[in-house]
Amino acid sequence: MTDPTMPSLSADDPERQPCEIWTRVMGYHRPVSSFNTGKQGEFHERLHFDEKRIAPAGAVP
């Protein structure tokens, strides 16, 4: 969402700082960049869900 009261900022590629993505794996946090190729692929295939929308066990839809 953009705010019309905020000025638009732009930066050339050399001025940009790369964003490092971290994730929680086996109880601790690690940067995704340290994963091997297969684990990076698994990370990108992950699905997000809304916990509130999940039915309780044994519930009939």
UniProtKB/TrEMBL annotation:
It holds the Pfam family NRDD. It comes from the Bacteria. GO terms for molecular function: ribonucleoside-triphosphate reductase (thioredoxin) activity. GO terms for biological process: DNA replication. This is Oxidoreductase. It comes from Pseudoduganella buxea.
